[in-house]
Structure prediction request, 122 residues.
Amino acid sequence: MLNHLSDLYQGRVNGSQGPNHGRPAWPILIRPSTLLDGAALERLAALDSRSLPDGSFLLAEVDGELVAAAPLEADADSLSDPFRPTHRIREFLELQVAGRPTKRPRIAVAGTQNHPNLRAAA
Prediction:
């Protein structure tokens, strides 16, 4: 599946090489959502004819416009712009979310448990 996103990114569609000859057809920015993304997420949910789940998202932007979003906490389907070719981008976001650890592992270092400046945050 990851190769499909690479093909899309490289400009190859339906088995043919695009006019960019290996250069990206368009830059795809993958990033976590912030509080400032609320309006763009609402717009994307409306385009997808769905309600916006609560929580944070992993976002995909093309040319500065939000085209897909995968929920990080909610057990819900990804959102995407139905007027753009986002199927492979959605697959990529979903793979990233599925492979993401749910909690950061805590690493204990010998001799630091009682040191006031080196205690791990709970």
About this structure: Confidence is low (pLDDT under 50) at residues 8-18. The longest strand covers residues 65-71. The chain has three helices and four strands.
